[in-house]
Each structure stands twice: as structure tokens, then as C-alpha cells.
């Protein structure tokens, strides 16, 4: 039988929905401070709420269902463990580059800071090496994260802002909201959008930041310059991180987000850049005998499947441009002449 929502549970739900009154907030604060058990209960409730919100395909989810999920979780927990806090990591990780969802940075301290205009609560979505993530954001926008990427936003997302911070690569399908533009910040670069589809790539070890537009219009800017660039569909901007040089060119945008379908297209791409893609996709380390090998140019596309790294390396090595050796135990590939 389903458990009915109690008075204190109703207060917590109101708090999480940002619909709590000042009097109710004071009552909730007092209750949480009364005991460590109350604080743990609040933490578990908040975590269940956030996980339910993060894994939903829609931006809204049923409050009653979220509560019942919390009850089911509590009932399955060892009743003797009263003061234990639980990690916020929920993993949906399949064998061949699928989903991994990580919600982090949640703390009860937020309850006492949120209404005092102090630091906001930050959510972090991560895709580790050899995995990808697809998620619906609170405003209904969709985002795919490529391997070894991180996306961050705060609890005011969709309310007073639509600000995202990206490290790595992400493809976005943004819900339209003329009154609240969405802004993706990645290093020095900012992409401002109202409603569109675009791809941003900026890994820490990459030499360039790449932004490709598939549909709509976006405003591209770099903090090192005063001007911004309005991009049109089927355009790609590359920004050299060291020199700051910007390059705008026309592309076939259908390849810009092909990685979300496990297909990666290379057009005059250096082997050093391709190696980084393979390292993230297969969680391997690739070593080069010398830097000249990194500058070899390749064309074509590859399909990322579970453990098909050998087939991919065989196809590229068949061009006779290089040889390679793969140590499966160490997960290392050595490329040489």
C-alpha cells in the first residue's frame, strides 16, 4: 500500500518546488536542526527528488510518484543506519557507449543558504570515458554529452537563468524561450541561443574550441574580443585556444552531431585529433613514436561499437601511413612508422 504524504514531507516537497512560504520555511529549518536523523531524512528526500527529475524524459514529473520513489528507497534501507548519508551517483552504464548519469553537489546546507542569497546549489552531469549521456534539462531542452565531458547548471536554471557550463563535447536541442535565452559557457567562449540545435566541443586537451550549428541561430562570442558572431545553419566556428584566431566556414551539419549515433566523421582530420576521440570512446591510451605521426591526415567515418577499437585501427593502418601495436592488458596503443 502506498504511503500518504505527511505534513513534514509536504513541507519538503514545497521547498523543493520553490513554493514554500516564509513561515513554512522556518518550520522546516527548525525540524531539520532538531536531530541528525531529521537531517539525514531531508538529504535522502532531496536526493530522490533530484534523481527523479534528472532521469525523466520531460521537464516536469509527478510529485506523488517522486514521493513514492523516496518511500520505496527508505523502506529498502537498513533501519539500523540512522546517520549515514548516501551518494548521489546513479549509474545507467551499458557495455557499448550508452548512458551514465551523475548528479552531484547536493547538500542540506542549501536549505539554510538558498533564502539568504548565498551560493547556489550546482548540479553536475558527467559522462566518463567510454560512455555517453542523454538528459532532459529542467526547461525541457535535450542534451547529449560525449565521453569524458561535464555539464553544470544551478538550481535557478529555467527560473531566473538558463546558464550552462560545458567541458568536453555536447549536442543541444534547446526549447524556445524568448524571455530567457540559454547560454553555454565553455572556456572563453559563450554561445547564446533562444531555440536551436547545435554542437559544442571543447576538451581540456584540445587545441581548438568548435561550435557547429544545425538549426536556428546562435550568437557566438569570445571573452577576449568585443565582437560576437551570429551563426547560420551549416556553419562551423573554430577558435584556437592559444592564439584566439577564429575561423568560420560552411559545413554539412548532419555530421556535426553524428557521434550521438555512435558514428564519427573525419574530414581532413589529423591523426592526433582522431587519437583523442578514440581514447575517450574506448578508454585507452594512445602513444606516438614521434609528433610527425600526429599530423597524418585522414578522411572518412568510423562507427563506435563495443570493443571494435582493433577493427578501427586496422582500417586506418591499411592505408600504410603507420603501424600500431595494441596491449589489451594495459589498454595502450603505440603508433609507429
UniProtKB/TrEMBL annotation:
Q: Which stretches are transmembrane?
A: 91-112
Domain FecR protein stretches: 127-218
Give an example GO molecular function: sigma factor antagonist activity
Keyword Transmembrane (UniProt):
yes
Q: What is this protein called?
A: FecR family protein
Organism, by scientific name, is: Bacteroides nordii
Q: Which UniProt keywords apply?
A: Membrane, Transmembrane, Transmembrane helix
Q: Which InterPro entries match?
A: FecR (IPR006860), FecR_C (IPR032508), Ferrdict_sens_TM (IPR012373)
Amino acid at each position: 500500500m502506498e504511503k500518504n504524504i505527511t505534513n513534514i514531507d509536504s513541507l519538503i516537497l514545497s521547498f523543493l518546488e520553490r513554493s514554500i512560504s516564509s513561515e513554512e520555511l522556518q518550520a522546516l529549518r527548525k525540524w531539520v536542526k532538531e536531530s541528525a536523523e531529521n537531517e539525514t531524512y531531508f538529504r535522502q528526500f532531496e536526493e530522490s527528488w533530484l534523481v527523479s527529475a534528472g532521469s525523466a524524459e520531460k521537464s516536469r514529473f509527478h510529485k506523488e510518484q517522486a514521493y513514492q520513489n523516496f518511500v520505496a528507497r527508505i523502506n529498502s534501507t537498513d533501519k539500523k543506519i540512522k546517520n549515514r548519508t548516501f551518494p548521489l551517483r546513479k549509474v545507467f552504464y551499458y557495455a557499448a557507449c550508452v548512458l551514465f548519469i551523475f548528479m552531484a553537489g547536493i547538500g542540506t546546507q542549501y536549505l539554510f543558504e538558498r533564502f539568504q542569497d548565498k551560493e547556489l546549489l550546482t548540479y553536475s552531469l558527467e559522462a566518463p570515458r567510454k560512455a555517453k549521456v542523454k538528459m532532459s534539462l529542467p526547461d525541457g531542452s535535450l542534451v547529449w554529452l560525449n565521453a569524458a565531458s561535464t555539464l553544470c547548471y544551478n538550481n535557478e536554471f529555467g527560473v531566473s537563468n538558463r546558464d550552462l557550463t560545458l567541458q568536453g563535447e555536447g549536442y543541444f536541442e534547446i526549447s524556445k524561450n524568448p524571455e530567457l535565452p540559454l547560454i553555454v559557457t565553455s572556456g572563453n567562449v559563450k554561445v547564446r541561443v533562444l531555440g536551436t540545435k547545435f554542437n559544442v566541443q571543447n576538451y581540456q586537451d584540445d587545441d581548438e574550441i568548435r561550435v557547429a550549428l544545425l538549426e536556428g541561430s546562435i550568437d557566438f562570442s569570445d571573452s577576449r574580443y568585443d565582437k560576437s558572431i551570429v551563426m547560420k545553419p551549416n556553419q562551423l566556428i573554430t577558435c584556437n585556444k592559444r592564439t584566439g584566431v577564429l575561423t568560420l566556414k560552411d559545413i554539412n551539419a548532419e555530421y556535426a552531431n553524428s557521434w550521438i549515433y555512435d558514428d564519427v566523421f573525419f574530414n581532413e582530420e589529423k591523426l592526433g585529433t582522431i587519437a583523442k576521440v578514440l581514447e575517450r570512446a574506448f578508454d585507452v591510451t594512445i602513444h606516438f613514436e614521434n609528433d610527425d605521426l600526429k599530423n597524418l591526415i585522414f578522411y572518412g567515418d568510423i562507427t563506435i561499437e563495443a570493443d571494435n577499437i582493433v577493427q578501427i585501427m586496422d582500417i586506418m593502418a591499411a592505408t600504410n601511413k603507420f603501424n600500431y601495436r595494441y596491449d589489451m592488458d594495459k589498454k595502450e596503443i603505440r603508433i609507429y612508422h
